[in-house]
Amino acid sequence: FSAIRQPLPDNVHLLTHELWKEGTILVRLEHFYQENDDPNGLSKPAKVDLSNLIENGHYLIGALETTLSATELLAEARRLKWHTTDDIMSNEVLSNGFRPLTGDANDFTVVLKPMQIRTFVLILR
């Protein structure tokens, strides 16, 4: 038995696929190639349609991107700021990662860059 409707790209690994809170699933995806590992294309960014990670009979109606630990929404996450020895500020606020997906409401495609891990809470109906 597999909850995945279609195979993932060859350069993507499904790290987590578990029931989260009622009506949601926690999904964590990993692109496991480095940028220069494979000249044949596996080192390039990979597209994954999150709706293919849902069992038949369920429908994906939204997806929220979270931090790696899934403790807060990526859009609301703040990184620590500190001064370096040359007094330049480092680690600015994370870019907007909130993803009840915009644009086409039926497009749940995400892109994983080489060596990137992304975590999503999928909202089901």
What would you note in describing this structure?
- The chain has strands at residues 12-19, 24-31, 46-49, 60-66, 82-83, 89-90, 109-112, 117-124.
- Helix content is 0%, strand content 34%.
- A four-stranded antiparallel beta sheet has the order 1-2-8-4, with no helix packed on it. Strands 3-7 form a two-stranded antiparallel ribbon. The protein has a two-stranded antiparallel ribbon with strand order 5-6.
- The chain is flat, with a radius of gyration of 16 Å.
- The relative contact order is 0.30.
- Strand 1 (12-19) and strand 2 (24-31) form a beta hairpin.
- Residues 89-103 have low confidence and may be disordered.
- It has no helices and eight strands.
- The protein is mostly beta strands.
